[in-house]
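quick one, 432 residues, struct below
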Amino acid sequence: MTFEQLIASKRDGAEHTPEQIERIVSAFATGQMPDYQMSAWLMAALLNGLTADETVALTGAMVRSGRVVDLSEIHGVKVDKHSTGGVADTTTLVVAPLVAALGVPVAKMSGRGLGHTGGTLDKLEAIPGMRVELDAEEFIEQVREVGIAVIAQSPDIDPADKKMYALRDVTATVPSIPLIVGSIISKKIAGGADAILLDVKVGSGAFMKTIKDAEALADALVRTGEALGKQVHSVMTGMDQPLGTAVGNALEVAEAIRTLKGEGPPDLTEVCLALTGKMALLGGVAADEREGRAMAERALRSGEGVRVMTRWIAAQGGDPYIVENPERLPRAWVTHEVRATRAGYVTATNAEAIGRAAMLAGAGRATPTDVIDPAAGLVLEPRIGDAVERGERIATVHAATDARCAEAEAMLLSAITISDVRTEPPPLFLKG
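---
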């Protein structure tokens, strides 16, 4: 079949064979299938869907479009964690050192943020000197020597995903569960991980706004990963308010350090300990999640997670002294205190709008080419369910200029609802 015929068959709701999907992906990755035809196929796939078998075939073809990192010479089960994206999702900076402290190798490839969601690489690059562009040999050597490495995806790994995602971003074809699954799982398999923990976010600050959509995504991710020979486990965590108090790159690094020292926000600490326990089980060092959780708590109390983070930063060229002296991190030129306009209880937050407020402060990107300010962001104070007085400080904006602070403050105030009647905080875990 020609590319035009393949597009027409998906437009009409037909199911592709694995060979047909392999041809589409391979031809697009190598430039034989032009963008305009791939755009049409992506839209047909979004509108008519892909079956479970088609999703597995798509994901496998994307993996085979480039190099697969071979981590077999590293002893133990190599684990990776992926979050589907949220506001102030600092968990990797806490969980990765804790998991490595338990003797489970952490080999992770991460991305940068776009829009209201923050990227792990942006947070790491807020650390002075930190390198995230390591080649495969450096990546493998660091995991072997330090037990942990978090890097950017190299150009020869899953090139089909890079091209497809860029096209999806400008053709309104991002919100397709099969296409999301292919993008996530192909990168994880190409990165060489043996086991994958998927943190599927749900709520106002997540891509998946409803439990139903999040469950559909989680099920498809697990099913596809397992069909391609990987251990995969998913959890669903709430994103109706930011996790922790800091939103912004250097601010989140500082909060991650406090959390590893046992001084972090309770919600961030709880989610990180739970995720670490699950990764300990996947990594084969714990018999069950309860034992994994206990091991995570010991690593936190003993300070071993802090020591691993220090070694990790040094290994990737960063300033390890930020762990003991977070004031060495970038600091904003201007800070504005945001105060409550009335007394009452915080009853709701629009987490996506809070993320956009941080973006207005300079912490995020509206387009992939935007330059971020590593020092910019927000520090939130009351949480959903907390009482506030009129004039009480509810947040602090960090930015380069007063104008940026003012823009962020206006967005932030519109994102926080204060009412007379108290409401219970939303759950941290919705499933898993």
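Residues 3-49 form a domain with the Transferase, Pyrimidine Nucleoside Phosphorylase; Chain A, domain 3 fold (CATH 1.20.970.10).
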